[in-house]
Amino acid sequence: MKKIKLLQQISSEGVVAVLRGETPEEVVEMAEQAIEGGIKVIEVTMTVPFALRAIEDLAKRYSSTTQDASKFAIIGVGTALDPETARAAILSGAEFVVGPSLNPATVTLCNRYRVPVMPGCMTIADIQAALELGVDIVKLFPGNLYSPAMIKAIKGPLPQANIMPTGGVSLSNLGEWIKAGAVAVGIGSDLTSDAVKTGDYSLVAKKAAQYIEAYRAAKQ
Predict the structure, then answer these.
(1) pLDDT by residue (tens digit) across 90-132?
(2) Is the pLDDT of residue 185 over 90?
(3) Alpha carbons 140 and 49: distance in angstroms, whole number
(4) Which of 22, 173, 183, 192 suits 220 as a labelling partner, its CA being 20 to 30 A distant?
(5) Domain 2-211 top-level CATH class
(6) Count of CB atoms within 10 A of residue 81's CB?
(7) pLDDT per residue over 40-78, tens digit each?
(8) CA angle 118, 120, 121 (to 5 degrees)
(9) Residue 114 in 3-state DSSP?
(10) Which residues pair with 187 in a beta bridge?
(11) The dihedral of CA 92, 93, 98, 103: what is its sign?
């Protein structure tokens, strides 16, 4: 049941912060600011040096099951290329797994432990294969190669597919993606780039609040 609830929570929250940084401490700071701004689904990518430290730290601070709204967040791992990486992240506290491509062994591992897995897909063939493996949400990646109209094209032959575009999603086009049928969106560098340039990480919270506002407006 926990997997089902997590999928419902991710879909309800609608915005996933995809975080990359130079150190685990930097990523934890980004995550805390994103959560403060209202983005409650955090994806820590494995390209971060010692990324598991950041996942473990955040998993201890936040929970998807808490009744305390200030401590509620869903912490997951991104750029999981193989099942070994996925399992290590799960043991460190990751509650969902995201990959840049479809790796059947990673999907099998996540299904074994009832952990939501979102592999990156680019083609109808990829998405069909993911569905056949039991994937519940497919990451359309890289999203900047497509327009929101791609979701309608996918849902023609595959109306049952839940699509989460990641890469190229911005404040200016988030509404279009949601209205096109995206179950959620992944936000990467646009969320954190200003903070990294200036060293002012409060800018992450401000940008996160703007994304949440745009998401809620699109859902209405």
Answers:
(1) 999 999 999 999 999 999 999 999 999 999 999 999 999 999 9
(2) yes
(3) 25
(4) 192
(5) alpha beta
(6) 13
(7) 999 999 999 999 999 999 999 999 999 999 999 999 999
(8) 120
(9) coil
(10) 17
(11) positive
The Cα 112–Cα 106 span in angstroms is: 10
DSSP string of 10-57?
HHHH-EEEEE--SSHHHHHHHHHHHHHHT--EEEEETTSTTHHHHHHH
Hey, what are 27's tokens? 């990523």
Token representation of residue 114:
């009832």
Say which residues have a Cβ less than 8 Å from residue 144's Cβ, sequence separation at least 6.
167, 168
Tokens of 45: 């990518």
CA distances to 69, 83, 122, 215 from 16, in Å: 17, 22, 19, 11
- Average pLDDT across the chain, whole number: 97
Q: How far apart are CA 175 and CA 217, in angstroms?
A: 8
Structure tokens at 57: 């730290």
Question: φ and ψ at 86, to 5 degrees?
Answer: -60, -45
Structure tokens at 182: 């995206």
Q: What would the two tokens of residue 190 be?
A: 């646009």
Place 220 in a pLDDT band, splitting at 50, 70 and 90. confident
**In the structure encoding, which two tokens stand for residue 89, read together?**
């992240």
